[in-house]
């Protein structure tokens, strides 16, 4: 039987560097972790790890035709992985860091498994010091998806994540209970703003 992931308590606003480093080391080795964000708890792996991405899909029981999103530490990283027009940049600049997932056309750096049929990708720059520190420490985006149970209900604390998903994780970063909403999904394709899912993020 697979060992169950340990829980490590972290300060979400002022994350302890040694805890961030421990998580980054696990991610770099193809591991999968759970961590708090500015919306739900997320499950994440290294974008550069095919093994990690496979494990994430399996853990979520997710259809391969439904791409996962990526999480970048700041806006300057986004242009490596997606085509960012001046319009898209200005829009995102006003909304990041924040509770938004932006749909953009992917660049060639994006692995095939991470793109929709239309070669589009969802990208987050969250308002979460811890989540951004993980991506910055890794030096690559995190592949990210919300931590949910088999029915798709969000898991709001470390203990319930451990009970439901601990067998498939390598580490759970615990920052207490999150009773939040999903991110707002905004398409910026063709320099048009289209809200595909209204969540926590509010467009002015």
UniProtKB/TrEMBL annotation:
Where does the record place the YrdC-like domain? Answer: 17-201
Organism taxonomic ancestry: Bacteria, Pseudomonadati, Myxococcota, Myxococcia, Myxococcales
What Pfam families does the record tag this protein with?
A: Sua5_yciO_yrdC
Q: Which InterPro entries match?
A: DHBP_synth_RibB-like_a/b_dom (IPR017945), Sua5-like_dom (IPR006070), SUA5_domain (IPR052532)
Task: Spell out the molecular function terms from Gene Ontology.
Answer: double-stranded RNA binding
Q: Which SUPFAM superfamilies match?
A: YrdC/RibB (SSF55821)
What is the name listed in the Swiss-Prot or TrEMBL entry for this protein?
Answer: Threonylcarbamoyl-AMP synthase
């Amino acid at each position: 039987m697979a060992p169950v992931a340990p829980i490590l308590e972290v300060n979400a606003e002022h994350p302890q560097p040694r805890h961030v480093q421990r998580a980054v080391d696990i991610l770099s080795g193809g591991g999968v972790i759970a961590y708090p964000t500015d919306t739900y708890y997320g499950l994440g792996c290294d974008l550069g790890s095919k093994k990690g991405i496979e494990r994430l899909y399996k853990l979520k029981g997710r259809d391969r035709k439904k791409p996962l999103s990526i999480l970048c530490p700041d806006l300057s990283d986004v242009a490596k992985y997606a085509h960012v027009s001046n319009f898209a940049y200005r829009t995102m600049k006003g909304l990041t860091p924040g509770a938004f997932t932006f749909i953009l056309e992917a660049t060639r750096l994006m692995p095939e498994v991470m793109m929709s049929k239309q070669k589009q990708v969802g990208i987050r720059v969250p308002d979460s010091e811890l989540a951004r520190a993980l991506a910055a420490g890794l030096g690559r985006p995190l592949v990210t998806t919300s931590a949910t149970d088999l029915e798709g209900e969000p898991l709001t604390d470390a203990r319930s994540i451990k009970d439901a998903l601990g067998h498939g994780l390598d580490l759970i970063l615990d920052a207490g209970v999150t009773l939040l909403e999903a991110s707002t999904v905004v398409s910026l394709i063709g320099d048009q703003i289209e809200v595909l899912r209204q969540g926590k993020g509010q467009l002015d």
